[in-house]
Structure formats: C-alpha cells, structure tokens
Amino acid sequence: MLELLFPNLCASCGSKPVAGKEICNKCEEEIDFLEEFSVCAQCGVPFGYFDSRASQSMDIPQEAENPHLCAKCLKGRYSFNRARSVAVYRGPIREMLHAFKYEGKLKLARSLSDTMIEHMPFNMENVDVLVPVPLYIGKLRQREYNQSSVLAADIARHTGVCVNLMGLVKVRDTLPQIEIRDEAARRKNVRGAFQVRDKNTFQGCSVLLIDDVFTTGSTSNECAKTLLKSGALSAEVLTLARARGI
Ligand SMILES: [Zn+2]
Ligand SMILES: [Zn+2]
Asked: What tens digit of pLDDT does each residue of 106-117 get?
C-alpha cells in the first residue's frame, strides 16, 4: 500500500526504477564502471579517463600480465598494496552518494553496496577483515552515521567477510579534504589522524579498507599506513567511486 502512495522513484532522475533497484535503466547505463577501463596496477587510477573523456581507453585491463603503474605509484607514494574503485564519481553515482551522505537517504546504502558487491574488484577469500575509514566522533554526532561503516557492514553481511567497525579510529578532526586543493597539504591534513584502538586487533590480517570516494588517496593512504604500522599483513582499499585527483 505504501508503495502505491509513495512509489519508489529513480534516485538520480526521478523516473521509474528497475524493480528492486533505486535507479532506472537509463541512469544505470550512464555509470562508468571501472572494470571496463585500463587502470594503474597499484592505485587504480583509470589511465586517460580524467585527462580527456573523449579519448578514454576502453581496453580490458590485463594487470596480471602487464602490471603498469601511474607516475605517482612509480614514485612509491602509497602504502596500500592496491586500491580499486567500482565506478567513476560522476552522474548517477555522484548524485546517489551525495543523497546518501548529506541528505540522510540511508535507504540508498543498500543499492550502493549492492553495486560494490556486483562489481567487486577484490577476491573476498583473500580478505580477513573489512575496515571502514572512520569519522571523527564530532562529525559522527553531526551526521549521525558514517557512510563508510554503513557500506562496509552491508558488504560484510552479503559476502560473509568479517567487519571491524571500531578498531580503527579517527583521533582528531581534520579539514574536509575536498576543501584542500593541494595534495601535499591533503596528506599533511590527515597525518597522524588515525589510530588503532588495540594494537593486537589487526596483527597479521589482510585488511580491506572501505570508503565512499577516492580522490588523491591521502585519507585511505594514512589509514593503510596506520594499519600496517600496527602489524597488519596487507592493506588494500575499496571505494565506491573514483574522483579526479588534484
Ligand atoms: Zn534514472
Ligand atoms: Zn597509481
């Protein structure tokens, strides 16, 4: 009955969505899934995509045979072993994520985590524990939920992999990374901002960090560094979306 009174509409364009989804067919087709692109073997940046949308490469990635790295990864800028995103941060993905994060549309979480599972770039058999990128407690009170925790908990529930929502904490507030236009300043902004609560928690674990958007990777890199310092065997990063780095 509620469905008749308040029909579900596509979260992006407002038309009729595909049954069981929050989004319509047309909008789903507009999503640029990164599995279709050639990406850096370490940080996952899609080669050519952000430089020129017109000349974007549609090569099937052949990472195993051809482990190619972007300029940043060749310089060894990241501590995580591998970062992957499911889709480019634009169009319907950007709109849905924005509504989920800032407009309290928690019901979109299911659709977004389903998309992450459907296009999962990692083999879950090799992952010991999922860890969301934490929010500072003050931010959490303001926003009421951590979007990364909601996604991580959903993925854990549907894949059977463990999730640790409290093990990694953010110990001080930082400026929103989006307000900082320089990568060195972004790194400085988050330096030392994360801690593991108990130094034994992640000993010997293969951790998969979960976040919503990867831009320069400074935040996930700082989390990975913290986890590796506390004895994690490896730290990888999965984000829903990939934004243009600065
Ligand atoms: Zn739509
Ligand atoms: Zn790279």
From this structure: 889 989 999 999
